[in-house]
Amino acid sequence: MSGEDGELARNLGFTEAMTMGGGTMIGAGIFILPGIAAEGAGPASSLSFALAGVVALLAAISLSELATGMPIAGGSYHYVNRALGSFFGSIVGWGMWTGLMFASAFYMIGFGQYLVAPVALLDGRLFVVLLGLLGLAFLIGVNYLGTEESSTFQNVMIGAETAVIIVYLAVGFFYVDSANLEPFAPTGVSGIIATTGLVFVTFLGFEIIATVAEEVENPGKNIPLTMILSVVLVSLLYVVVMIVSTGIVPFDELGGSLVPVSDVAEVSMGTAGVVAIVTAAVIAAISSSNSSILAAARVVFAMGRDNLMNDWLNATHSRFRTPHRAVVATGAVTALLIAAGLQVGAIIELLAEVASFSFLVAYSLVHVSVVVIRRADPDEYDPAFEIPSPLYPGVPIAGIVLSVAIITQMAPVVIAIGCGIVALGAAWYLGYVRYRDIDESLMGEAIVGEPTETGSPERYRVVVPVANPETQKNLLRLAAVNAHTHPGEADPEIVAVNVVKVPNQTALEQNVQFEEERIETQRQLLDSAREAAADLDVDLRTRAIVGRDIGRTILTVLDEENADHVVLGWRGQHRDREKVFGSTVDPVLKRAPCEVSIVNLEKGEIGSPVALAGPGPHAPIAARRAAEFATLSGTKPTLLNAQQPTDDDDIDPVDVGESMIDEVAREAGLEPGSYDSEVIIADDIQSAILENIGDYDTVSAGVSEKSGVSKILYGSIAEKVESHAKDNVVMIRGPYDTNRSVREAVAERLAD
């Protein structure tokens, strides 16, 4: 199955994207770089971080436009390859892959340094390198096996290290001695710029957001917001860290330390602070290196997708469904770089600067790509975020100039290695790529320009997630009859969706390419849906999506399709106390922005439908749904209401029930005579309703509300119907427009 036949689920919300971007940048660099930076620029190293942040911000702005215009896995590599062609694509692809490996080795050396320093029995490079290799082996194993818990573990690690840094700054502020900040710039402007190239490695995290752009929810908003916000916040954080660190420990002393933040913490926080910093540094190194390995494997895949890399390296493990060969290859090269620390004294500075060099080259070409793609204006390019007119083309021009300026100030050995990596990419193109790749760069179109086209009319749309060939035809029938009741200027449409779930370590598009057996099953399922729809006289479109969370993927589809209704199949079984309908259905029921029908068709045929016509807000929709279903069996729906007897002679419970039924029918848009009414009078309303619905084949009921009379009288009844009815049950919820509490709103935003 080709990449064009499948889609990637947008399961990464604001929090996840910020964690991937900002969390990675806050990572190990904040514990390792202060000493090296202080040695290179003194207290003015804070300006080096600020300048690096400016360069990263310019790149983030350009990448935000590209990522929202072409949200495809691969990040900078993909955009350069598309805009400038496979020659430059090869250079950037190899540069990003090697840059990420150099960065991962840098983090693992720092991991070893922070573990060795506090233990008196351990000393020397051998232990640092050995511990770095052991940490790398652990991460390679995690990424090879594809544990589901790794992303949650990553979030916890980033939260812990950030908390430690905040405490470090809050306490350290009171220990700053202004005398230590003099002289402020002992190495002058050249030292500040040279140090900028060294510390730029810590700003690579925002690139990861672009690398997974195709998986980000609401990309037009979340991609630019998370990329730009993460760069700004991390830049400010690093500036403050350097001022506090050099203000507590003189920069010449700090520059000679392998564990600079630990040395500062010893002065301001004592032994407890040192323990906390060492722990956080170890966590940060693991977290940052893990992110780099994940990103490196995705770059390799993106190159393979474009025929710039051999398919052998792109293979997905048959059992773990992870890019195991790319992971092992990345790990092997990274291990060699770590082992080089046995011979190279300044290995950590070298690793950091080479990684920075690779990405500065990549970002320079990214800025060029923005200009080329804007000029070419291809049909598929429709960015939700554009560089504002006053800043264009200033942003890409400034980005190129600053990147080149920083590169020129790097050490000769770094420039030599960096140019060697560029030469490797060029040689790879000449020796491998140009014989296999059809170059589709936009350079030609950029010279003459291309027109754009547009959109389609709005139509009533029903989304039907399908997973079971035995039940999907009935779900499509119910969706079709619902769609037929909403004719408009554009014909109504059904969208059948199937989601294949994959582990976190696997790039989603990689799964589309290589999970042949499961993807073929998905294809057959959707073909079957199309065949079923052919008899229903309704337009049907299918979507095959690869995602990590089925419920959240369905929610994303509902947003993208601007759906009016979603029809979900359900087996009629409780999972546990925390989940009413299950981990897939519950999130959709709670957060879908449209009508929701949860369908359990035990009989298969609709037969005689009945709707509970109570005071709940979803009762009119349940009545309307019962009327739609009745058309399938050629019957009338029955609207059922229950009342308790009263001692008041002026109140007739039957009249009250009939009035309520008529009101529900009116709100549902049902004409008089198109439905039957039944009013039950009983002391025990719940038992009476459960007894009477046994006379019908299909029960339609609104789901429970959180509070109020409707839950007491009818919400709990709906729950009983859902759990005890033996025939067809359809649980209904209207559009999600209820008011949220502050607590719910905060929780929902964090969930996004």
TrEMBL record:
Keywords: Cell membrane, Coiled coil, Membrane, Transmembrane, Transmembrane helix. It is a multi-pass membrane protein. Residues 461-599 form the UspA domain. Pfam families: AA_permease_2 (PF13520), Usp (PF00582). Residues 504-532 form a coiled coil. GO terms for molecular function: transmembrane transporter activity. InterPro entries: AA/rel_permease1 (IPR002293), APC_superfamily (IPR050367), Rossmann-like_a/b/a_fold (IPR014729), Universal_stress_UspA (IPR006015), UspA (IPR006016). It is found in: Cell membrane. The chain crosses the membrane at residues 12-37, 49-72, 84-106, 126-146, 158-176, 188-213, 225-249, 269-288, 326-348, 354-373, 385-407, 413-433. PANTHER family: AMINO ACID TRANSPORTER-RELATED, INNER MEMBRANE TRANSPORT PROTEIN YBAT. This is Amino acid permease. It comes from Natronorubrum halalkaliphilum.
